[in-house]
Amino acid sequence: xxxxxxxxxxxxxxxxxxxxxxxxxxxxxxxxxxxxxxxxxxxxxxxxxxxxxxxxxxxxxxxxxxxxxxxxxxxxxxxxxxxxxxxxxxxxxxxxxxxxxxxxxxxxxxxxxxxxx
Length: 117
Known about the structure:
This protein has helices spanning about 15-20, 70-80, 110-115; strands at about 1-10, 30-35, 40-45, 50-55, 55-65, 90-100. By secondary structure, the protein is of the alpha+beta class. The chain has a single domain (about 1-115), classed as Alpha-Beta Plaits (2-Layer Sandwich). The strands form two sheets. It has a four-stranded antiparallel beta sheet, with helices on one face. The chain has a two-stranded antiparallel ribbon with strand order 3-4. α1 packs antiparallel against α2 (about 70-80). The chain is elongated, with a radius of gyration of 17 Å. It starts with a strand and ends with a helix. The mean pLDDT is about 90.
């Protein structure tokens, strides 16, 4: 079992969700997050004054999958969240972490059975 955490652009969420649904991955947790990477934020004009915003809005997806779905899930996120044609700074990151156990609270199922449909 693995926990896939992806940080993506908010405007790419519909594409990512559609790509995940195409490979039968439906369960995820989505959180609004703010952070900075290489782009180090941005500057904009607000009421005539220059305002620097060092943190950029992103979405954080957390997806628990069985080992058989890891590569397909990563590839779906990668292809659907990249800006065309070759990607650009700020497209995001994908982290794949080992997951020791998972328990479905309703039934008490443990392990891969608790993740599956």
